[in-house]
Write a structure and sequence with these properties.
The chain is mainly β. The chain is built from three helices and ten strands, in the order ββαβαββββββαβ. The structure holds zinc ion (2 copies). It comes from Hypoxylon rubiginosum.
Length: 137
């Protein structure tokens, strides 16, 4: 099927995700942990897990910046973002294997439609005003 397009906030970086079947190969999750709040500036992070081999930067590779840090549990977490606008692109932990987690909002509208969220993590850290998302686990 046609690649799922996306990019950073300023447009300097553009990427394409090529999957035969997004329904089975991609998994979008919401995470309420404090790292996700800090990195994204929102109440939660929302990322789509995909095989690393399906992701390709098609424009602006030179703008990609990397931040690596222990995520608090002794595992190195690797985050990529745009050096021009600061917008997040993707992340993966040292134990993520051959998968990466692309920040959901960086995908274009019709791409996000194909990978709606299926799970939620760190629900105990959900802010009190934030309702549970129905129909996922
Ligand atoms: Zn940018
Ligand atoms: Zn998180």
């Amino acid at each position: 099927m046609a690649p799922l397009p996306g990019g950073c906030y300023c447009g300097a970086i553009r990427y394409a995700i090529t999957l035969d079947d997004p329904e089975s190969q991609a998994r979008t999750s919401i995470c309420h942990c404090s790292n996700c709040k800090k990195f994204t500036g929102g109440e939660h992070g929302i990322t789509t897990k995909i095989p690393r081999s399906s992701f390709e930067i098609i424009k602006g590779k030179e703008h990609v910046r990397v931040h690596e840090a222990d995520n608090g549990s002794g595992v190195a977490l690797h985050r990529e973002f745009c050096g021009t606008c600061g917008g997040p692109l993707l992340e993966y932990g040292a134990n993520a294997g051959d998968n990466i987690y692309v920040f959901y909002g960086t995908m274009e509208d019709h791409a996000r439609d194909q990978v709606e969220p299926k799970g939620e993590f760190f629900c105990k850290l959900r802010d009190p005003w934030m309702p549970e998302v129905g129909g996922i686990f």
